[in-house]
Amino acid sequence: PTRFGAAGEAATAITVTAAAMHMSTSDLNETPLSIITDGQRVAVTSDAIIAARITKVWSGDRNEAVVRQLAPGTSAKVAPSGILSESVAEDLLSAKAQQPHLTDPRTAGETLLALLDTSIRTAVPDPAQPVAVLLSAGIDSSSVATLAAHAGRRVTCYSAGTPWGNEHEGAAELCRHLGVPHVTVELSLDDLLETAPVAIRWLGHATPEKVDIALIGTALLACGHLPEATVLTGYGSDLVNLGLPGSGAADDPHGELPGLVAGLQDARYSGNL
Q1: How big is the chain by its Cα radius of gyration, in Å?
Q2: pTM of the entire structure?
Q3: CA spacing 20 to 30 A to 214: which of 110, 198, 221, 241?
């Protein structure tokens, strides 16, 4: 399971020695790595902006440089001579997703909630530690807030308003039910525009719908409205579409698998899983 990134362990690694440069990504690909080559040199970075800059400089220097992202579960080595070798482990995650072993919806839901509960308790091991929950009043963030509160964590929920609207009322209703504090934050258009480059930078791409999903959470963090050191969110579920089956799911559950697996891969490659 260490291939999937154990709790508290940095699953992505870059190690440089006199003999070679080694790099690896886990199956969950928490921190994507970009690798740049121009036929004679090799560079690796976890920052998409730095990767673009290296590519531009190297392309103007000699041969055309190429940048690509290492696949999840990759181990690679660069020798002092510049020779790059890499191997990709069997994709266990996609294989598991394509062969689900749970078919009963209730059992699947209970299993998912149990896994989320364990993740929250692991992320916040000290019940006295203040923790923020980004709450949109949707099912994903509401589930996270509920589980954190039921686990006895010191939860404060934050809901964001934008020039296009907000979900403060729904968030407040849940917070009253859970008996936890609720803070509303109003984000201006300038707040969102200034945060867009930050969101794109850590996503590593500029796909509009993915940036849109990431923008509010990133803006809340960038604007300094959250004093807590740990932030929980339901973000990521929108990318995978877990829990949002199509209209034909009841008649053909396995017909939903290709879309879910594609969402899983997409979220994983961008480091958002």
Answers
A1: 21
A2: 0.77
A3: 110
